[in-house]
Amino acid sequence: MSSLPGKVAIVTGASRGIGRAIAVRLARDGVSVLLTARDEAALDGAVQEIQAAGGTAAWIAVDLRLRDSAQRLVDDVLGSLDASISWSITRVRPSGASFLALTDDDWADGFALKFFGAMRLTRYAWPHLKAQAGSVVHISGIGGRTPGREFAIGGSVNAALLSFTKALAELGIADGVQVNAHQPRRGADRPSAGTSRRDRLQSDARGTKVYPGLRYHARRRTRGYR
User: Fold this and answer.
1) Contact 94, 50 (CB under 8 A)
2) How far apart are CA 129 and CA 152, in angstroms?
3) Quick check: is 3 in a domain?
4) What is the distance between the alpha carbons of residues 112 and 63, in angstroms, rounded to a whole number?
5) Phi/psi at 72 (nearest 5 deg)?
6) Beta 178-183 vs 209-210: how paired, if at all?
7) Distances (CA, A) of 200 to 63, 82, 99
8) Domain range spanning residue 100?
9) Structural domain total, the chain
10) pLDDT higher than threshold 60 for residue 92
């Protein structure tokens, strides 16, 4: 999006953490934001924060693991849509379980929200984004590149999301939609000494790491398309 004021964006996982920080920052920059997650109270609090600061925002609680949720979310956007920003955390139960302890249901649940939720939202939003020369941003964890022994599901989901984003960038070149994956810095969702958690997240929303090659790949043949 070349100019933010007046644009419209959907931000998933926006009830707390990085997703909320992104929504707050976009609203501060003049974007009308539709926040979504599963926690109604947290979403309402985020929207009140944005509105109190003079921004424009609304919320809808959906579970993106369900197949019809993404379409419902896009249908609730009135008028144009300029950006789709997908962020969620892959929950592993039992927490920190090694590969041999994971069931098929654990794997299915891990992919349902972060990967399939982002994929379906992008699919339904794409015609709107194409019409507006909009943007798709997938927030992928660093585990997609450096998975650990106890992060088999999360690392696999994030790697799949990166691969999907790279493939989608090819279509974006043809359709005029900018497609990027961002990787927050390690520990971005944890407070550090001398820095408030919210300030750290706001900083990360401004400075997330772009997965090498994706931004370049999406732009290199667009002759200045931004």
Assistant:
1) no
2) 33
3) no
4) 10
5) -60, -40
6) antiparallel
7) 27, 26, 32
8) 8-219
9) 1
10) no
Q: Name 19's Cβ contacts closer than 8 Å, sequence gap at least 6.
A: 11, 12, 13, 35, 37, 85, 87, 88, 139
* Contacting residues for 199 by C-beta, under 8 A, at least 6 apart: none
Cα angle: 182, vertex 32, 18; to 5 degrees: 35
Count how many Cα atoms sit within 13 Å of the Cα of residue 42 in the half-sphere of its side chain.
Answer: 16
Q: H helices of 53-149, where?
A: 69-75, 104-111, 117-132
Chain-centroid distance, C-alpha 104: 25
CB contact at 8 A, 56 and 9:
no
First to last CA, the chain: 7
CATH number at residue 127: 3.40.50.720
Q: What is the DSSP letter of 113?
A: I
22-61 CB burial, b ≥16 within 10 A, e <16: bbbbbbeeebbbbbbbbeeebbeebbebbeeeebebbbbb
Q: 226 in a domain, yes or no?
A: no
pTM of the model: 0.78
Model confidence over 159-194: pLDDT tens digits?
A: 999 999 999 999 999 999 999 998 876 555 444 434
Q: Tokens 């999360």 appear where?
A: 154
Measured in residues, the chain has a length of: 226
Which residues are bridge partners to 167 per DSSP? Answer: none
- Which three-class secondary structure state does DSSP give residue 139? strand
Residue 144, in any domain of the structure: yes
Burial environment of residue 166 by CB neighbours within 10 A (0 to 12, 13 to 18, 19 or more): middle
Distance CA(136)–CA(224), nearest Å, equals 18
Whether 225 is in a domain gets the answer: no
